[in-house]
Design a protein that fits this description.
single chain, about 350 residues, alpha+beta, Serine Threonine Protein Phosphatase 5, Tetratricopeptide repeat, eight-stranded antiparallel sheet, 11 helices, rod-shaped
């Protein structure tokens, strides 16, 4: 595929037609004497052979005088021009700065009827050029046979339309996925998979959608402190898309793995609870409140931490009020003693 990416500036040296293969172009890089042989077939595939015999195959799409060569997850675009039956290519500005980023840089390029008609015309030209020269008619010409039925384009156009719809749904699903609209992206990938059941890319993208949606649910549950529900969401994410395993593991702080993968709900809350309990046993309510306040600042959306902090604040207020009442109470007044008359 590196050969395909190196076609940054190409010059057409010669063209020709191979029977049954399609349109053939030979290119040479400006910076080196290296020839590349590009064969575009009428079944929407291409073969690119480098100077060392390396061969890259893939699919192509064309629309509005542009053709995109797709091999694996890489898509490169070229502008094409028809000149004397030759297909001239030059690099297009359609590609973004990151052509390897499939999710962000795959535009909805579709196969156009104009390019399909041209390929069919090129095949007909090759077919008719191979016919023998016309001989002079005999003295008694035989009966003229009916002309053969003209080849029809309906099957080819039907396949092109099906492929166009597939790539359109894939592009729409990719755009929705990049915007984190997982349900919408999932619907597009399902339709694309039905259009081309043999395509593995639609199935992979669908699994990635399910995994990403479960991962997002797990993150939201973890932020709320729902550790058990978050654990189940993370497990569903890994099951839907095993490739998300490292990302899921990195998003699971506070889970202590055992044989049955049961999370330890005392972590990381266990250390905090132990510290607060120790301060309360020693009568240091202010220190216990300080620990809870710091924990809330780290996880402001955790309802358990907020409740713990409010309880400690109430306890400190109660202790302060009790201390103030104790220190401000006046000294007890002795009861009045009844006067006694001195008896003589």
């Amino acid at each position: 595929m590196h050969s395909l990416m190196r076609l940054a500036s190409v010059v057409v040296l010669g063209t020709g037609l191979l029977a049954g293969e399609g349109l053939v172009n030979v290119y040479r890089l400006d910076s080196a004497s290296e020839s590349y042989r590009l064969v575009i077939k009428d079944n929407f595939t291409f073969e690119l052979t480098g100077p060392g015999g390396q061969q890259v195959t893939g699919n192509y799409v064309a629309s509005n005088q542009k053709i995109g060569l797709v091999a694996g997850h890489l898509l490169r675009h070229f502008e094409y021009q028809l000149q004397n039956g030759d297909l001239l290519l030059r690099p297009s500005n359609t590609d973004g700065p990151e052509p390897n980023n499939v999710l962000g840089q795959m535009p909805p390029v579709q196969r156009g009827e104009q390019f399909t008609s041209y390929l069919t015309e090129a095949h007909h030209k090759q077919k008719y050029a191979a016919l023998p020269a016309v001989q002079p008619p005999p003295a008694q010409p035989p009966a003229i046979a009916p002309p053969p039925a003209a080849p029809t384009l309906e099957p080819l156009l039907a396949q092109a339309q099906n492929d166009s719809q597939y790539y359109a749904y894939m592009a729409a699903g990719t755009k929705a996925f990049s915007e984190k609209k997982y349900s919408e992206a999932r619907a597009h990938f399902i339709v694309a998979g039905r259009l081309k059941p043999e395509a593995a890319e639609a199935k992979d993208r669908l699994a990635l959608c399910d995994g990403a949606q479960a991962l997002a649910e797990g993150d939201a549950l973890r932020q709320r402190g729902d550790w058990r529900e978050a654990r189940e969401a993370y497990r569903r994410a890994k099951q839907a898309c095993p490739a998300l395993g490292p990302i899921v593991d990195a998003q699971m702080p506070g889970f202590k793995r055992h044989g049955d993968d049961t999370p330890d709900l005392r972590q990381p809350m266990g250390a905090l609870d132990a510290g607060i309990a120790q301060h309360l046993q020693q009568g240091r309510t202010a220190d216990a409140l300080r620990l809870a306040t710091n924990a809330v600042q780290l996880e402001p959306t955790n309802p358990r931490l907020r409740t713990l902090k409010e309880g400690l604040e109430g306890l400190q207020t109660s202790e302060t009020l009790h201390l103030n009442l104790k220190t401000s109470s006046p000294a007890p007044v002795p009861s009045a003693m009844p006067s006694r008359k001195m008896s003589r």
